[in-house]
Amino acid sequence: xxxxxxxxxxxxxxxxxxxxxxxxxxxxxxxxxxxxxxxxxxxxxxxxxxxxxxxxxxxxxxxxxxxxxxxxxxxxxxxxxxxxxxxxxxxxxxxxxxxxxxxxxxxxxxxxxxxxxxxxxxxxxxxxxxxxxxxxxxxxxxxxxxxxxxxxxxxxxxxxxxxxxxxxxxxxxxxxxxxxxxxxxxxxxxxxxxxxxxxxxxxxxxxxx
Length: 209
Known about the structure:
Layout: H1 2-15, E1 20-21, E2 25-26, E3 31-32, E4 37-38, E5 43-44, E6 48-49, E7 54-55, E8 60-61, E9 65-68, E10 73-74, E11 79-82, E12 117-119, E13 124-125, E14 130-132, E15 136-137, E16 142-143, E17 148-149, E18 157-160, E19 165-169, H2 173-182, H3 189-194, H4 202-208
């Protein structure tokens, strides 16, 4: 199995020459954007990762993560998309719904809730944080280090704690609405490069568009 993962990783490097792929494990069908960085020791099974996003060392991104947006900063030892176990069944163990244990002939869903996990664009997730399965994190949000995120996070919200709670927003309501409308992360590299002098001030950047 290790050989298979190695081959998939080497193929990914060939298909994505602009990316830095050092991860321990990379899913076969992961779609990478431009200049994505995947660091040592991480296991990456997300379906899609956007341009310029970096994932630091020893992270776990589970297969229920449908997408991670562009320009995301994911710090050391972050876990995204971790699922739960049934609490009202006979046992919490997956032998009851996972066919690999030989007790059932097919994998069975044990919950009717959506387990799809989505990370927006320009999201910063601090070191040692956990994002549970089914959570959606909005564009521009910040997750403080050592946080446990068990519910959706609004765009440009800063959340911290175990469980994570809203602390404040990064910008005013008016600026947030304008930033979301521009979807600046979809601008070309050339367009962003023209506005480097405005990146320290969100309002100045908006006025430059």
